[in-house]
Amino acid sequence: MNALFKALNDETRRQIVEMLKERDMNAGEIADQFKMSKPSISHHLDILKRADLITSEKKGQFVAYSLNTSILEDLINWILTLKK
Amino acid sequence: MNALFKALNDETRRQIVEMLKERDMNAGEIADQFKMSKPSISHHLDILKRADLITSEKKGQFVAYSLNTSILEDLINWILTLKK
DNA sequence: ATAATATTTAGATATTTGTCTAAATACCTA
DNA sequence: TAGGTATTTAGACAAATATCTAAATATTAT
User: Fold this and answer.
1) Is B10 helix (H, G, I), strand (E, B) or coil?
2) Sign for the pseudo-dihedral over CA of B24, B29, B34, B38
3) Does any CB of chain B come closer than 8 Å to the CB of residue A62?
4) A14-38 confidence digits (pLDDT tens)
5) A61: left (phi over 0), alpha (psi -120 to 50) or beta
6) Considering only CB atoms, which chain A residues are within 8 Å of B23?
7) What is the pTM of this model?
8) Does the keyword Transcription regulation apply (chains A, B) (predicted)?
9) What are the structural domain ranges in chain A?
10) Which segments in chain A show pLDDT lower than 70?
11) Pairwise CB contact (< 8 Å): B18 & A67
């Protein structure tokens, strides 16, 4: 739960997640959507991946990232327990 | 959304929220459940309050804190949009 | 093999965050 | 009003975080 909240506690990472909801994207394509440097985006992708929010697959010289929505169940369940 | 994720991105604060789910509590009662100093807990309460996750009401020399679950709707909705 | 492209790793740095102690404020009671 | 209890504010400090540039790695194309 810690890694999940940590991963989502950043506007850039939330935007990445929202982008990946629409379609899978390469690291470079993702980085192009931000003013930030590529290494910074790479770091954000790493944090999202550690939280299991995204998965990556190497395709030639590209790395395709996908959203993993199944982990969001845990988050929703945690929130729902608060609402009794 | 930022304040909300930020507020929940801390184990102590998540525990406070879980405690307040059971019953309203005074600042001191909350602090007693942790090894941490009272000022630190007060700071956490402030962050939760800014995120609108809790409300406070002064009752004499005590300050009673309550959980505000309505704000959780926003969080759930944000998550649900990701799941399409 | 060399060069070009895509991505990550390493290392540095400024900012943010969580924690503490000491002090201030607010309320209650004798 | 004086003293005690509850809570917050202020200020300091260490650890975590987000960002950058430079360099390393991996793949593709000439």
Assistant:
1) coil
2) positive
3) no
4) 999 999 999 999 999 999 999 999 9
5) alpha
6) none
7) 0.94
8) yes
9) 2-82
10) none
11) no
Residue B83 has pLDDT above 90, yes or no: no
Coil/strand/helix, residue A60:
coil
Instruction: Please state, rounded to an integer, the average pLDDT across all residues of chain A.
Output: 97
Q: Which CATH class is domain A2-82?
A: mainly alpha
Distance CA A8, CA A15 (A): 10
User: CB distance from B79 to chain A under 8 Å?
Assistant: yes
Nearest to B6 among A9, A18, A82 (CB): A9
Cβ contact, residue pair A72, B83, below 8 Å: yes
Contact across the interface for A8 and B5, Cβ inside 8 Å? yes
- Chain-centroid distance, C-alpha A36: 16
